[in-house]
Write a structure and sequence with these properties.
- With about 400 residues, the protein is α+β, with helices and mostly antiparallel strands.
- It has 3 domains: about 5-60, Alpha-Beta Plaits; about 70-190 and about 260-335, no CATH class; about 195-255 and about 345-385, no CATH class.
- It is about 30% helix and about 20% strand.
- It has helices at about 15-20, 50, 55-60, 80-85, 90-100, 145-150, 165-175, 195-205, 250-255, 305-315, 345-365, 365-385; strands spanning about 25-30, 35-40, 70-75, 105-110, 115-120, 155-160, 180-185, 210-220, 230-235, 240, 275-280, 300-305, 320.
- The strands form 3 sheets. The chain has an 8-stranded mixed beta sheet with strand order 5-4-6-7-11-12-3-13, with helices on both faces. The chain has a 3-stranded antiparallel beta sheet with strand order 8-9-10, with helices on one face. It has a two-stranded antiparallel sheet with strand order 1-2.
- A hairpin with a 5-residue loop joins strand 4 and strand 5.
- The radius of gyration is 21 Å and the shape is globular.
- The N and C termini lie far apart (about 55 Å).
Length: about 400
């Protein structure tokens, strides 16, 4: 049976729970809100399937390198889709191609309570739900079995997620399905679902309204850059951009105190990708390819398989430029995100005094910072800033 001695050794992918025919494994949240397997030894028959499908165990045992990878910078030709995508809209184009073939697309979205979950989409008009990055670990419980049922009926399925989620699905399936296409994301880390729930509660109290959507990388005001703008849509129809007196989820997420422990020992922070296609931002900070720079966003696409190559070749909605592996470099393709030395202290304060106290202690926004934000917004309005091509 799965025996978890270190939390760093579990990515929460749900493969072990999904494979257990005796229902001996149930994933439950810990005190940080991350899911971990709880094993009922009285039901376990020592079949060891849970260990065989664990992607973390498999990666520890080594993985064969991928040959003949292809690298592209891409940008969606539809400006509306591009502006509502985190980077260049590559996911939307690939997902639409699958839907056009009668397929089903799985990805992460918010439910009515702003919990991040994986869901299935089979209509183009619903695809918007899966656009945009959600820097929170999504709940996958029940999804792997659902995907397997569809594949057994020869349905075309596109599954997108973090690399450990994609690898967990493939290990659970135990065989390659020709009708399955997978997209893994170059992931910075998985944020705490519990803290995100606390955060949305805090935000709703500040804004005096129920949140129905959050765009963590809104391009409307500042375009596409390393300076991310957060916006939320309220049930009353209002759209609110990040305010200077409100803590942003970015402050919490990028503190590296609130991410899943396994992320800081990630076995996927390299070019040995589990998906048919890998997606990320295409940054060109050193200006090696200035002709590809756009304030509307550009995606990095790494093609890892023949399946990935075939689906990409058939898409006409993308502008595509072939690049080299050197052009693709970014920190999360080289090493895992480093943990903050204050991580344990944060969670100690959180458990003893609650999230409001912890949020204020660790993420309070100084008046100087607020003034700078307001000044930048004022200047942007004065010059009439708008994203360029």
């Amino acid at each position: 049976m799965i025996q978890l001695n270190r939390k760093e050794d579990c990515c929460g992918c749900t493969a072990c729970e999904s494979i257990c025919g005796k229902n001996a494994i149930v994933l439950k949240p810990d005190e940080e809100g991350f899911l971990y397997p709880q094993v009922d030894a009285s039901k376990c028959v020592d079949c060891h399937l849970c260990e065989k499908v664990c992607p973390v165990i498999a990666r520890k045992n080594g993985v064969k390198g991928i040959e003949n990878q292809k690298f592209y910078a891409v940008r969606h030709k539809d400006k509306d889709i591009l502006m509502n995508s985190s980077s260049g809209g590559a996911f939307s184009a690939i997902a639409q191609a699958v839907l056009d073939k009668g397929g089903i697309v799985y990805g992460a979205t918010y439910d009515k309570k702003m919990v991040v979950r994986h869901v299935a989409v089979n209509k183009s008009e619903d695809l918007w739900q899966l656009r945009g990055s959600k820097y929170v670990q999504s709940d996958l419980r029940g999804i792997f079995k659902e995907v397997k049922s569809l594949l057994s009926l020869d349905r075309l399925v596109l599954f997108s997620g973090t690399p450990c989620q994609v690898d967990g699905l493939k290990k659970f399936l135990c065989k390659d399905y020709e009708s399955l296409i997978t997209i893994d994301l170059v992931c910075h880390a998985a944020g705490s679902p519990l803290l995100f729930q606390n955060y949305t509660d805090y935000l709703e109290a500040k804004l005096k309204g129920h949140i129905i959507w959050m765009n963590m990388r809104d391009k409307t005001k500042w375009g596409w850059s390393h300076r991310f703008l957060q916006s939320v849509e309220l049930e009353n129809g209002l759209k609110v951009y990040q305010k200077s007196n409100i803590i942003s989820w970015w402050s919490i997420y990028y503190s590296h105190m609130t991410n899943r422990p396994s992320c800081h020992e990630c076995k996927y922070s390299n070019y040995n990708r589990p998906g048919d296609i890998t997606l990320a931002d295409f940054w060109d900070d050193e200006q090696k390819r200035p002709e590809l720079k756009s304030e509307r966003g550009t995606s990095l696409v790494i093609v890892n398989s023949d399946k990935g190559s075939k689906i990409l070749d058939g898409i006409k909605d993308l502008s595509l430029w072939e690049i080299t592996i050197e052009d693709t470099w970014q920190p999360c393709l080289e090493a895992p995100t480093q943990v903050n030395v204050n991580r344990d202290f944060f969670w100690q304060v959180y458990s003893q005094k609650g999230y409001q106290y912890a949020f204020r202690k660790f993420f309070y926004i100084s008046k100087v910072t607020r003034f700078k934000w307001k000044a930048k917004d004022f200047i942007a309005k004065m010059i009439g800033y708008a994203p360029k091509n």
